[in-house]
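Its record is retained below.
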Amino acid sequence: MKCSTTLPVHVFTRLAGEKDGFWQPFDEGPGYFEIDPALEVMLYLPRAEDETVEILCNEWRDVPLLYQIDVSEGRRVTDEGLRFLSRFSQLRALNMSACSISNIGLEHLMDMPALIWLDLSHCTGVSDKGLRRLETMRQLTYVNLRGLPRVTQAGLKRLAKNKSLQIRR
């Protein structure tokens, strides 16, 4: 599969279906890539912001085995950036640690039915109200909620009703 990017994205790959397999560095953008269709892809976009997330989503929209996107530490990634990312309905893992998303933005996660792994640590705009959206995502198996001062024990208790969900707090 051929793809290209104008962004300084870090591309990692592993054999498709190897859930415990380690991600191997593949290449870095900007540039052109030819990725074996037997590989799953993980993208890390440093210094992400809404505009670069939109570009990333447009450039990588035709990659069927895009497994994970990491925009962590993207303090300029807001609910709008999460809306762009929700275009990837096949995405299995999303790292939004320390992004500027809020409870409202979490609504966009509903458009990601394959998502099983989610890191929202240090997204200080998320509260118990936002966790209610996560309660309906029964496919989630892991969520990181560290550093969320507006999340209470009561909110965590409701979320923990999903016994297959591992909550890191």
